[in-house]
Structures are given as structure tokens and as C-alpha cells.
Specification:
This protein is of the alpha+beta class. Helices cover 20% and strands 31% of the residues. A 5-stranded mixed β-sheet has the order 1-3-4-5-2, covered by helices on one side. β3 and β4 form a beta hairpin. The longest helix is centred in the last third of the chain and has 11 residues.
Length: 122
């Protein structure tokens, strides 16, 4: 469902989520490389629906830069998930900034992504 300007409920879900992934292990845990253009799992209790638009301000490692990233919710893990998995959303990168952010993440995770260590696949 596409949010519209007149839909207050949909508009309240949109907004800026500030995400800081400060170490390689945390970045690896959240990275979803199997998504086209890449994506991240974002732990959150906020209610989202598949297809919701999301705007992230992403900080990677110790960089002072906050990367603006637009995306779509393509994964939902509810609060009641089996196995104690954290509640959250999977956000697929979209927009002009997606290749830049994906390349940055892949650079930080170079050598790890090709190993047999798994990423956060819920």
C-alpha cells in the first residue's frame, strides 16, 4: 500500500530512522546481501507493513558522514518471533544513493562476506 498525503496513519510510519552500525560484527549481523541493491535488518518495535517507504540516516563505523538512504520494507519480524529473534524490519535499499551505500558496506565487510560465516538471515 502506497502512503498518501491524506493518510495520517501511513504518514506517521514514515519518518527518519537514525541507524549507527559502529563495528564490523554489528554491520555483518544486519546486512542483507541477498536483496537486490542490498539492504539492512533494522531492529525496531515500530509497526510497519511490507512495501512501506523508509528513510534512513545511516552511520557506518567511525565515519562522521550520515548517509541518507531511502528504501522499502521487504521483511518483517514481529515481536512474537520464535527463537527469541529481535523484532524489526528488513529494508531494501532504493534510490540514487543505494549503489554508494552498498559499496561502502561491502568494502567494510570485504573478506567476511566470502567466508562461510552467515549474515543475519532470519
Amino acid at each position: 500500500m502506497e502512503p498518501t498525503r491524506g493518510n495520517a496513519a501511513a504518514a506517521s510510519k514514515q519518518g527518519v530512522m537514525s541507524i549507527a552500525l559502529r563495528d564490523r560484527n554489528q554491520l555483518l549481523q544486519c546486512f542483507m546481501p541477498f536483496l537486490k541493491h542490498g539492504g539492512l535488518f533494522i531492529p525496531t518495535d515500530k509497526p510497519f507493513e511490507l512495501g512501506d517507504d523508509v528513510f534512513l540516516l545511516l552511520t557506518l563505523m567511525d565515519e562522521p558522514t550520515r548517509y541518507p538512504v531511502t528504501g522499502k520494507v521487504v521483511w518483517l519480524t514481529p515481536k512474537t518471533a520464535i527463537g527469541g529473534r529481535p523484532a524489526g524490519i528488513g529494508v531494501q535499499f532504493a534510490g540514487m544513493e543505494a549503489p554508494t551505500v552498498l559499496k561502502k558496506i561491502e568494502t567494510y565487510l570485504a573478506g567476511i562476506l566470502t567466508s562461510d560465516r552467515t549474515t543475519y538471515t532470519l
